[in-house]
Amino acid sequence: xxxxxxxxxxxxxxxxxxxxxxxxxxxxxxxxxxxxxxxxxxxxxxxxxxxxxxxxxxxxxxxxxxxxxxxxxxxxxxxxxxxxxxxxxxxxxxxxxxxxxxxxxxxxxxxxxxxxxxxxxxxxxxxxxxxxxxxxxxxxxxxxxxxxxxxxxxxxxxxxxxxxxxxxxxxxxxxxxxxxxxxxxxxxxxxxxxxxxxxxxxxxxxxxxxxxxxxxxxxxxxxxxxxxxxxxxxxxxxxxxxxxxxxxxxxxxxxxxxxxxxxxxxxxxxxxxxxxxxxxxxxxxxxxxxxxxxxxxxxxxxxxxxxxxxxxxxxxxxxxxxxxxxxxxxxxxxxxxxxxxxxxxxxxxxxxxxx
Length: 355
Ligand SMILES: [Fe+2]
Ligand SMILES: [Zn+2]
What we know:
This protein is an alpha+beta fold. It has two domains: 4-121, DNA Methylphosphotriester Repair Domain, CATH 3.40.10.10; 132-350, q2cbj1_9rhob like domain (Jelly Rolls). 29% of the residues lie in helices and 26% in strands. The chain contains eleven helices and 19 strands. The strands form four sheets. It has a seven-stranded antiparallel sheet. Strands 7, 10, 13, 14, 16 and 17 form a six-stranded antiparallel sheet that branches. Strand 13 (288-293) and strand 14 form a beta hairpin. Helix 1 (15-24) crosses helix 3. Mean pLDDT is 86; it is low at 1-29. The protein binds fe (ii) ion (FE2) and zinc ion. Residues 65, 69, 71, 96, 98-99 line the site of zinc ion (ZN).
């Protein structure tokens, strides 16, 4: 059984990475988010011990490198960090000719280094490094936004492994019994697993301003507290005390019918879903689908191309769209297309608690 204590465990000798990062970390509030990221210290130090733990890309040159690359140090504002080189390539970057980040000799310890990274760079640091302005623009434009490479493969496996531990959950839902689809999911009980708790608390403050803006646009009175604790206190005072983060498991033939997630009077308009399995390797089919029904128009569908460790943030019920006479609501539903083979795990983070 995999427990939360095993998430991001170290191997012998890798503690040294943490110490050197902590020692050189600067916290000047005027510096860019990159400079607050412990990975930046490893790039500045051209730390060979960090090679394979992460990759960085440079917006101005379009290449990605290993931390020890001997190329000229880029400006921190042009730097992005990636959990794997695969994630860097998917973001449109190409391999550096100088450090050859994908040379075969580098691959051997990559997996264990990626796990070392997940302990070095906290969930909070990874969430804070997301380009939230871009997420807000995507939510405004389409009602959903992709966040690639937020969790390492080891973290994904550890969370998925919790499914078999009944002590972690308050209830189990067999979808076919309720007409929700086919497959099953379980709601976590409090206290949540540490990774899930951190993700929920770290993501919420970045979405609350977007939620406020949407409500203002749609002339809905509710405004959201700046921190998750404040919002949960409001839910709990209204009797919505049951935790809503959940773990879903699909096998061949399973699917999740299109739906909205509204659990009481107090609703946070966004949720986040994390794909814990790798498409093509662990399962086929099983795509995350969103549909949008606009007034007097046919529904429109979008497929979100998630890979293992990616998240999608999306509107739970509606989004504002600008019309000729002000804004109106379009209704969104989400679901999962039929899994054709294999097994697919997802974690869902809903921010409001339930009745
Ligand atoms: Fe849902
Ligand atoms: Zn390089």
